[in-house]
Amino acid sequence: MMLEERLPAVCVLLSLLTFVEPYNSPLKPTWPNYKVPVILPQSISKLDKAQFDADPSLNVSSSCGAECHKYSSMPTYEDLRDYMAYETLYSNGSRTMTNVGIYVLSSSGGEGRSRTKRQIYGHDGRFNIYGKDFLLNYPFSTSVKLSTGCTGTLVAEKHVLTAAHCIHDGKSYVKGAQKLKVGFLKPRYKDGGKSLNQTNPRIPEKMKFQWIRVKRTHVPKGWIKGNANDIGMDYDYALLELKKPHKRKYMMIGVSPSGRYLPGGRIHFSGYDNDRPGNLVYRFCEVTDETYDLLYQQCDAQPGASGSGVYVRMWKRQKQKWERKIIGIFSGHQWVDKDGDKQDFNVAVRITPLKYAQICFWIKGNYADCRDE
Ligand SMILES: *[C@@H]1O[C@H](CO)[C@@H](O)[C@H](O)[C@H]1NC(C)=O
Ligand SMILES: *[C@@H]1O[C@H](CO)[C@@H](O)[C@H](O)[C@H]1NC(C)=O
Ligand SMILES: *[C@@H]1O[C@H](CO)[C@@H](O)[C@H](O)[C@H]1NC(C)=O
């Protein structure tokens, strides 16, 4: 397949910010079809060795709420190229910066960005996930713990999606990022499983983390530049590549539909909240507002849940089956000024078509496998 000529910037922008309106049966929430752009590396430059001097902060807060985000100016094509450039950190401490080109393969106009009315719902509680049957089963088994304290989600044989702030504070890498590891909950038996028999079914003594080292990480420049400021939050995601395959089932990533197309308007995620050490905590709640890059909700969550993959389950028409996909990354708290009242929201970064193209490229290493979404 050949890339078509680069289209004028305005045209590119339009197609990056629009999508094909989904067919949506009221009974069956269906995955929309998106036009995914192509992101290709154009140049790679070496950077100085990484500094690991930032104190890990498990939460990010920003005073720019949904309204502020909605009325901030639209990024230009050059802005987007800049935000989508990315830094790669290797386990030996060396770093590279990759500049990218953004292309669309076909052009057709569309509706502008959608805007939904703000609605505030009460929040739902959280559920501890107990018992190996649940913990070791999909989708909970895709939640892993980062040695820096956050949560991540398995998105490929060797890849974990998480929040950027779990490894980088916008200026520098956090102290624990140099020897970053990913923890998998595994059952541990008192005697190594020797006494297992019919009358004594497999009841593990307890669950324990087994760790795998991270080989390299990718962080978008939009985060590094932004330094967790107004636009920075939009780029609070990172991808980790493990030294070896984890051999578990993973969850696919998908482009985030608008909140109004989600089943029940809800999102789901599981994470290792720090107020419940050693427990995987599951929750779901309604999306209360959204911008092009963020989903606002009031799911209960404590900092350790940062980096959790936010997922939904919808019907995939082409495959004629239900599919669960990660459509966002839980970032953290945000105080939003609403009519003079400070309101506490939890924010998730949406996987937009552009971010999908980038993360997919990081996973697959080529764009051809990232065309179909
Ligand atoms: C963020 O975390 C710090 C310390 O962990 C805490 O003091 C602060 O209140 C938290 N901020 C928010 C908005 O949750
Ligand atoms: C670190 O690792 C990367 C990737 O494996 C390699 O390209 C680079 O040369 C290494 N740097 C040093 C200083 O060893
Ligand atoms: C099964 O395990 C229980 C508890 O460890 C033990 O008391 C019992 O003798 C075992 N039965 C057999 C058939 O090994």
Topology:
Layout: H1 9-16, E1 38-47, H2 66-70, H3 77-84, E2 86-90, E3 95-103, E4 127-129, H4 132-135, E5 143-146, E6 151-154, E7 159-162, E8 181-188, E9 206-220, H5 221-226, E10 238-242, E11 252-253, E12 266-271, E13 280-290, E14 294-297, E15 309-316, E16 321-338, E17 341-350, H6 353-364
Parallel strand pairs: 11-16
Antiparallel strand pairs: 1-3, 2-3, 2-9, 4-13, 5-6, 5-8, 6-7, 7-10, 8-9, 9-10, 12-13, 13-14, 14-17, 15-16, 16-17
The protein binds 2-acetamido-2-deoxy-beta-D-glucopyranose (3 copies).
One 2-acetamido-2-deoxy-beta-D-glucopyranose is lined by residues 59, 61, 303, 333.
GO molecular function: serine-type endopeptidase activity
Main location: secreted
EC number: 3.4.21.-
Written description of the protein model:
This is Serine protease. Belongs to the peptidase S1B family. It is an enzyme of class 3 (hydrolase). Keywords: Disulfide bond, Glycoprotein, Hydrolase, Protease, Secreted, Serine protease, Signal. One of its GO terms (biological process) is proteolysis. Helices cover 12% and strands 34% of the residues. The longest helix has 12 residues. With 373 residues, it is mainly beta. The protein contains 6 helices and 17 strands. The strands form 2 sheets. Strands 4, 11, 12, 13, 14, 15, 16 and 17 form an 8-stranded mixed sheet that branches. It is globular. The N terminus is likely disordered. 42% of the residues are buried. It binds 2-acetamido-2-deoxy-beta-D-glucopyranose (3 copies). One 2-acetamido-2-deoxy-beta-D-glucopyranose binds next to loops.
